[in-house]
Amino acid sequence: MLRKAILSLALLSCSVFAGPKVAFETTLGNFTVELNQEKAPITVSNFLKYVEDGSYEGTIFHRVIPGFMAQGGGFNQDMQMVKTYAPIKNEGNNGLSNDRATIAMARTNAPDSATRQFFVNLTDNDFLNYGARPPGYAVFGNVVEGFDVIEKMAKQPTTSFGRMQDVPEKQIVITKATLLK
């Protein structure tokens, strides 16, 4: 009886705290991320602007490093940077860690420089967390379906393109990004 009550409570708490989900369709397969509005409200709001305006569609995963991460959302198929909204405040100190299958914002060396580029961690990357490297890289959700697609990305041959390295030889294009209802 007690075990059943605890299980019911656990399931209820999971459903209460579930955040918005975004489904990505790519030329390599599909994956879905669940966003954590509670811990990363600024980052989630920013990310959803790009999803809702459709501007992730037609962008590529331009940097993929096996055993590290797959980064995308900022370049089109001609390897040109795409338009961004203003940079956001870094929420790297939100208590979420750059663990395997989490999604985080890419940024420059400037702490509050993230705009639209994101990355999915292929492994636990503790060195990207706030405690190891203030201000850290802001995690704002995790892959809940299709992580095998992210792992497939890491198996694709890469090359250099201009000054960029680790660019997949065959483009991995985001063909659709949809906020699930």
UniProtKB/TrEMBL annotation:
Domain of life: Bacteria
One Pfam assignment: Pro_isomerase
Domain PPIase cyclophilin-type, chain residue ranges per copy: 25-179
Reactions catalysed, as given in the entry: [protein]-peptidylproline (omega=180) = [protein]-peptidylproline (omega=0)
UniProt keyword annotations, A-Z: Isomerase, Rotamase, Signal
GO terms assigned for molecular function: isomerase activity
Signal peptide range: 1-18
EC id: 5.2.1.8
InterPro entries in alphabetical order: Cyclophilin-like_dom_sf, Cyclophilin-type_PPIase, Cyclophilin-type_PPIase_CS, Cyclophilin-type_PPIase_dom, E_coli_cyclophilin_A-like
Family from the record: Belongs to the cyclophilin-type PPIase family.
Stated role: PPIases accelerate the folding of proteins. It catalyzes the cis-trans isomerization of proline imidic peptide bonds in oligopeptides.
Name of the protein: Peptidyl-prolyl cis-trans isomerase
